[in-house]
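Q: How would the structure tokens look for this protein?
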Amino acid sequence: MLTAVGVALLVGVAAAVDREQAIVALRDLGWAEFLGSLAMFALSLVVGGLRWGVLLRAAEPEAPLAGAISSHLSNSFISGFTPARSGEALAPLLMEERCGVRPSTGLAVVLVDRLLDALFLASALAASAFYLRNRLTDVGTVLDAMVVAIGLLGGLALLIFVLLGPLGVDRIAVHWVERFNHPWPASVLSSIQRMREASAAMQSPRDLTAALLLTVAGWICQFAYTYLLINAFTPIEWLDSAVCHTVAVAVGIVSMMPGGIGASTIGFMSLAGLMGYSWEKIAVAGILGLLGAYVVRFLMAIAGDLHAHKARSKGSRP
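A: Here is the predicted structure in token form.
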């Protein structure tokens, strides 16, 4: 249902674009920038896989890095078609198959990975709100409220991150589980404890620093993807592009659309339009960029699956 709504929004955006403007935008397309943007998107997927590998090997030192990367590539494609990235529920199973780790460890990787992204996004949104307050002076009150909301969400994400530590969620769950004399809640508690132990191992200073650096690197790749994509159709400043991208990501997450389809494009072009850019050219760029990104996800997922299949045929982990 959400996919249909997202596609309908995208079709609505395409229909709203003046035909002559679209033809001009496509005629003047800068192929070097467009292909460069897709290369940066592909690189962001690889960086995300490396981050999974760092987190996974913090808990399981013998886990194969290539297996973590291939799991991330396949999962990225699946998550692009599921609401609110719910496809990531399959990630622990992919890591179990390709890395030989427990699903609870894979789940810990996904949770810590999401929390690192949430912390960066909250920080980027707060910085974007301050930037936009000077850039768009007529919406200052709204942006002040946005900063407060972001601070609360960022604090909540940090609190959850801390709760995954040594005195975390398993202690909270013990009191509830011990009320039941049944093997099912006991097995749930065991999984929670293993997940907590894995997530605690991921919070060592060395591994957490590496994961944070890869988080920043991944977002920079995403910013570069958007910047090059828009510049393939119309000039835009790096900082304006990064701010629009940050807000568009947040809009996509809140909308719960698969891959942010439709909602992120509208968020980006609306904000860019307020900044004085041609929203029609940016809409064309957004639609073609979205299609290109799905092609990249598909090709990278095939590469990951082929690597996993080759490793299985050799009788070893990926």
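The chain has a mean pLDDT of 77.

The chain has 13 helices and no strands.

Upvote if useful.
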